[in-house]
Amino acid sequence: MSLKKVRSSPDLPVESHAGSESSAFRFPRDTNDHPKLWDLSNLPILLTSNCFMMPTRFVRLTRLACLAGFPLLTAAALSPLSAQVPNAESTTDSADTVDTANLYHFNGQGKVCPRIVSLVEKTGGRVDWGGNNQIAFDQFDTNSKHFQAWIMNADGSSPRAVTSLNSTLAQNDAGNPAWHPSGNYLVVQAADIAPPPWSSLKPDIYRRAINPGLGFNNDLWITSIDASHAAALTHLDTGHGVLNPHFSRSGDYLLWSEMVEGHPQKWVMRLAKFRVDSDGPHLTDIKTLDPLNNAFYGADDFSPDDKQILFSTTKDAADTTHRSIVRMDLATGKTKYLTDAGDVEWNENAHYSPDGTKILWTSSRGIEQKPDRKVNRTDVWIMRADGSDPERLTFFNQPGTPEFRHAFNVVGDLSWSPDAKWFAAFLISRIKGQAPDDFTGSILRVTLP
Question: Which of 29, 243, 244, 258 sits CB 3.0–4.6 Å from 60 for a disulfide?
Answer without folding.
Answer: 244
